[in-house]
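Example A, followed by Example B.
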Amino acid sequence: MTIEREKGWRDIGWCIRPLETLSVSSCLKEVHAEQPGRLWYSSDPRPTAEAAMSLAGKSMAPAIADLAMDLMEQDRPIEAAGWKIEWFGDVSKGQVHFNMTRPGAPGCWQVCVGFEREVSEQGEIKRAALDAENAKMDPRELVLRLLNDEETEETAFRAKEGNFRAPRRGDEFSVISATALRSFPDVPPGPPARISNFNCTDAQGPFDPDEIYWPGIALTAHAPLTWDDRAINASGDLGRSDVFLGPEVLCVLSTVLQELGKEAQVSEAMEKYVKQGFWSSCTGRAILLEELGLSAVREAKGFLDNSVMEVLATVSAIAAEKSVASVMEDYRTLITRLPALGFDHAETQYDCNDMDDFLHVTRDGDIATLHLRTENGEYRLVHDEDSGTFLVHDCAREQGLGSFEVEQDENGTWNAKILSASDEYSSRTVTSFNDAVRITSSASCCLEEDHPIEEEGLSP
């Protein structure tokens, strides 16, 4: 299907349709009607997740900033939605940090609110003197200093904390950032729930959102870059953000802010952005996926809560359908040829990709099972040839990653329809599924190189 879209302001990008005319259900119908290509599945949820993070981050930011002020003024922890929230570190560069932990549960989320810095009384005096000095200089020299990044009195002014007052309630935010920690005093070691250990950091912070990168980074949501009342970039204003960790920490913050009664503050901010409208720097299908993410947050009244996480899981499941359909030919090649070559037992496995991956096939009547052991995990891909069901199973976590109905049409093309999938949108689930599919496809290519069909007189 083709959706007619207008060009964005000054012909930059494309206009997002007014959110008032869209809904999650209408967008999902359009997503199902699209026909993506073979390789889109691994990143398909990304535009939806990024658009949801972008709108929710901006909408929730005033309430998160308000929570930071509550912590500073009360100077004691706040407990909400099962989380202990505690002010952490010193206020510097207009940044306020706080940690969120759950008693008896591993992991910690560290959140930073960066406020627009306001000049102090001392700073106003120094600022006036600097402005008077700059007025005497040739403007070209000022520009050259800026371009050459020279150390100047201006640089020294910005670096001195005394020239700026501490943040106050009502100050505008400039950035919200969040970091996942896998170790923290008085809580068990390990990552936060649904987060892999690899994505976290042992460092304790505080982490400066002005830095380009730091370990464990989950989210960097900036105040919108816009002029007057012009439309906002749908997935813009996100710095380095993770499409799994970012939604997770925003979901945690949503439950906290809702219990603290800050819904009206979030809804008001969200409506302001919805009225401005959005544009997209993406193309084609990705714009529709962005609209789905924006619609999900709008229906959640500005939060990225469990309802939005369910939408992300749904988009991931739709992607899984297409990925299974795309890999079935490779899968059938492996389950046909590996036993014929003697790779039909755990002790006689086929290795490929520089011995990073090991495979063998077992069969019980009409049920064929491809056993995979990769660098990242162990999986079983099971095809019941009689019923037409196809299962992807994570052996290490004893978790089903999806079950599908698969069939081959008269042209030999495989189609897949999802029967059940994990309702968990997390890096562990999506990465494991993609790993199983990717190695299946890769192993089929390796098998053709190692054991050409012409050499054996076999056909898949």
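Example B, a separate protein, is given below in the same form.
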Amino acid sequence: MVEFVSVEMTEPARARDRNAGQAVPSSLILVADADLEAARKLALPVALCVGGAEGFVLEGRGVPADLVHGAALGVLVLSRAGAAAVEAMAAGWLARFGVSLPDRLDLSEERAGARREAALSWIADVLLAQRQGAARRAVALMRDMAALRREHEAMQAAFARLEAHAFHHRLSERKLLMALAPVEGSPVAELPSGAEMVQRLPGGSVGLSDLAVRIAEVPQPRQGVLTCRLESPDLGRELAEWTLPAAQLSSGWLRLSLVRGLEEDPVGLQLRLGWSGAVPLRLATAMAHPDPRFRPQTGGGTPVGRHVLAMEIWHYLPGVRAPASATGRLPDGEMEAGPGMRRLEARDLLRAINLDTLARDMTPVQGGGALLVHVMPEQVACAILPLPLAGPRQVSVDVMTRNAKGPVVEYAIAVLPAAMRPKRPGALPDFPEEAHSGWVRMKPMRAGQVTLILPDLPAAEHDLYLMTRLPPGATSNAYGWSGFSSVVLHV
């Protein structure tokens, strides 16, 4: 009696199974060794595969059992000896694959002249059933794929709505992740005209949304162009580029913003700075670094001093857009494609000028996050905030009196060209009606917002006036912690 492959095989059989040829017909018939010659005489249009103690054999070569399992149409029995062998095979097949043998056709009692016709009819029925099953599975698969696509599109649409909701309602903001501040007494890094400087960025790339370098002093004369390129050596390509004329540069932080946080794949990053101008560009530096790889380098790879560049790095959700800072510069070509809302952060508000002193001596509300324009009796309290963007179309500012014991306070905002900024302390300008929001009355600890929609403004520098006053008849400003926060510019 012929034994078919069982679960346990000898090591030579395993080796033969592993090394067997991989080319197997898409359809084949299993036969016992005792029935092989009789099956060949039927001249069937399907390959015959023999099972034995040493594995499966197809046309004299061994084939892997897993491939036989996938291609077998059924088992053909042509003799009693073959039938007995198939019974033994069924047990080994079940143990190995966990399923029963494919359909079998027993022609051991059929007369020789009718065997071929019966075998062909059986093969046709099996193939037809397989094709019909495959067609049904294909239809079901297409339906499942269509349903999956609809679910994916619905999920993408829902995420886009969520992103837009968070974006327009200012539910989140870019977070300052790392600040390498200038160190007192540290040398400046000079970038000569026509040269490049490369600074490796610290921290991870995932979610990076902004980075800033600090210009120690504005080059004089203000001629030339600064080119900033965010690169990934791991990817071998440039991720963003900023081209900034010298006339747009000022001493202090130069913030370079991306429209979206970088994607989830972590990569190394570096900032490549190129300068063309009449005099070198001087950049502030932070602490010294013992590893030359982290110091700024020339385009040729030579370290520039021992101190890293002063830098600030912000992060946001990977691949998600957030309102860019009003002080940030978007990459070349992204001004139109980028968000139309720009935000002034809490620290930007501290640049405000006190109308009473014409000095930058404003303070935040206790706890931070808002600029304190403490309401005053019998006069308008006012802070003047220089806007970093020319010609905003709309300005909205959150307001709140941040003490439950405080008085009712009226809030207003206005926008005027910077050229009209008062020259005398306490001299509040006369605002045109279209440049003034009107007064909004707020109870203490009640969150509110003041909005001003502006006509087309000239492309010049403008100031935002943040004003508070007591309602008519009120005299006490005790606990009048009136604050402005979350300034959003629509450009």
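On Example B: The longest strand covers residues 208-217.
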